């Protein structure tokens, strides 16, 4: 099978793409320097044993967009036990609730390439419901339950669970995100944002702006990443989507994803209060 990291590089890196925000692209210049000189509010190495990249493979490759898709990958974190992981429900849609599915967990001690790989058996303990279409009449996105709790057959060695803060994230709160986009560990500060005018497609979700020059940092593979309050280092939300600006048709396909402008959200997240109800559904 070869080096696991090389195999994982061929995976379809799942990261739920939500409808683009229609903002103008202005004012990115001096803000970049100011943000990159600020120190992180949480040492990401202290979270290394709490967060993993999780991948599972299809029985047969699937052809999509001219590529062979062999599996899916996301980010997950330990919740209440070394046997329970939280991730995004859209990643776990095809994972079984009864039978065990082989999966791979990757973990890095610091930002960068993972230095620990483990084959595990996993199944869905509880999964939130995702609506096919948002309910604009109720102001709901249909993604407000985009969370899943996964059970490992055996406890993961040296796992450290994360504490949660059930109160919804406040506007302008400073947060810290650690995830595995592309299978590599990345960490960044962020700010909880709100839209000037309510948008029904985001109803029930938290919006945050990643404070990095790479506004597409938490893209494919980052779904399920914990969003932590900088004050108490507790999880307040779970990353589940990337927001983009309007596409520019004259750009080549590899550069066709346009980031949102400075001062606007870059990602969506599910408030961690949803976990309370989900925990009651554990089988």
Radius of gyration: 18 Å
Number of helices: 3
Q: What does the oligomeric state look like here?
A: single chain
Number of domains: 1
Averaged pLDDT, please?
82
Between the first and last Cα atoms, what is the distance in angstroms? 34 Å
Structural class designation: mainly beta
Q: Beta-sheet strand percentage? A: 25-35%
CATH topology: Thrombin, subunit H
**CATH architecture annotation name:** Beta Barrel
Order of helices and strands: HEHEEEEEEEEEEEEH
Given the C-alpha coordinates, what overall shape results?
A: globular
Q: Uncertain spans, ≥5 residues at pLDDT below 50?
A: 1-15, 22-37
> Biggest β-sheet, characterized?
6 strands, antiparallel, barrel
Produce the secondary structure layout.
Elements (H helix, E strand, L loop, with lengths): L3 H5 L3 E2 L15 H8 L14 E14 L2 E12 L5 E4 L13 E7 L8 E12 L20 E5 L21 E6 L6 E8 L12 E5 L15 E4 L5 E8 L24 E5 L2 H6 L4
Parallel strand pairs: 1-3
Antiparallel strand pairs: 2-3, 2-5, 3-4, 4-7, 5-6, 6-7, 8-9, 8-11, 9-10, 10-13, 11-12, 12-13
